Structure formats: C-alpha cells, structure tokens
Amino acid sequence: GQNIDQPTEMTATEGAIVQINCTYQTSGFNGLFWYQQHAGEAPTFLSYNVLDGLEEKGRFSSFLSRSKGYSYLLLKELQMKDSASYLCAVTDSNYQLIWGAGTKLIIKP
Amino acid sequence: NAGVTQTPKFQVLKTGQSMTLQCAQDMNHEYMSWYRQDPGMGLRLIHYSVGAGITDQGEVPNGYNVSRSTTEDFPLRLLSAAPSQTSVYFCASSYSSGDLNNSPLHFGNGTRLTVT
Predict the structure, then answer these.
(1) What is the pLDDT of residues B60-80, one digit of tens each?
(2) Contacts of B98 in chain A (CB under 8 A)
(3) Long-range CB contacts for residues A1-6, cutoff 8 Å, separation at least 24
C-alpha cells in the first residue's frame, strides 16, 4: 500500500528553527509537495521537490532524498503566524497525489 | 481574481437528503478535483476531472457524483447523505491537465458539512 508518515504535532518557540519530517512509501514517485493549512482554512502551496537536495524559499526550505523516501520542511525564524498544519503530499506513478495526515505546528512565544 | 470559489461554506443535512456543493474557478485550469478532509487523515480524493466533459473516480467516490460541463464549474452531488459523509470538503484546481507534476493545487475555502 501507499503510505506517508508525518509527526502528528510539534511545538517550537518563536524565533527558533523547526524541521518537519515526512517519509513515504508509494508506487512510483513524480514529485513531493508541501502545503500549509491554517486552522479552518484551505491548504496553500509552499514548495515542490522532484530532485534530491534542498530548495530554499525565504524562511522556508524543503529537502528531498528519493533513495531514502524522505523529505523535510525547515522553517527558520519562526513567527506566531507559522502556527498551522503542514501537509506532505507525493505524486505517484499515476500522477495521483497521496497525502499525509499533516503535522500541526504550535508556536509558543 | 477570485481563484477557486466554493459554496456553501457550511451545511447541515439530515440523513437521506441530497444536495450539491458548488465549485467554480476563473483561472482556466484544466484539472479540477474534490477532496474530503477528516481528522487524523490525509486529504482523500473523491472525484476529479482533467477537462470539460471528462470525469473520473478517486479514492472514495461512493455516494458522490460529479459532472464537468464547462471548464469553470465542477459541482459535487451527494445523492443520499449519510452521517459518514460528515466532513470538510475542498475543491481544488490545477493548470495541468492531469499531470500534477510541478503544478500545485489551488484550493477553495472549503464546505463544512454535517449530516445528522
């Protein structure tokens, strides 16, 4: 079966750095997405990785290792507005998106 | 630019009732889809469409129908509501016509449905 694992919940302090991990087992791989979802709102696109390595976008970076079936989202200089759920999703060999259950990130002052 | 517009935002149904969730996008996206989101689970695909006149089933299609008569609109019909269909429903669209490779989804604001 296809599976994506993320921690259910993480807590971090304002101004700090946090890493949210995602491991996947899917039938094929055609890319990995990270989305942010604030409570009661729609998911919004954060990043996309298809090649191994690190993609940086301002305070957010996303890393991919295809051989290990592993990705992480790195958030730097955390702000209170970063409190949200972070969803990992993988595009499989049929170009269908497989979604993780999401990681709820709580930022404390 | 409105993006993806879903209506209604909230709905309460009794078991056995039917209703239609509306979804419209103004970005000329070929790909449209419906997801449900339940606590502790990833988004699950109900139905999707790669263009006007074409629809296909996702992971959890039972109890739902869709149609795609225009590029802009993709309504989701609940045929006979059941308590198991209590969920948050999201419509999402993408530029890519079926190939989601590097083509992120744009989501509507969701419909919170309760079936009693």
Answers:
(1) 999 999 999 999 999 999 999
(2) 95
(3) A1/A25, A2/A26, A2/A27, A2/A92, A2/A98, A4/A88, A4/A89, A4/A90, A4/A98, A4/A99, A4/A100, A4/A101, A4/B42, A5/A100, A6/A86, A6/A87, A6/A88, A6/A100, A6/A101, A6/A102, A6/A103
